[in-house]
Amino acid sequence: MHLEVITRRPEGAPRPTPLLFVHGAWHGAWCWDEYFLPYFAQHGYEAHALSLRGHGKSAGRVRWASVVDYVNDVEQVARSFDKLPVLIGHSMGGYVVQKYLESRRAPAAVLLAPVPVVGIFPATVRYGLRHPLALLKTGLKLDLYPLVGTPALSRDTLFSRELPDTQVLAYHERLQSESFRFFLDSSLLNLPRPAGIHVPVLVLAAAQDRVFTRREQERTARAYHTQAEFFPVAHDMMLEPGWQAVADRIIVWLNGKGL
Question: What's the domain range around 12?
Answer without folding.
Answer: 5-121+179-256
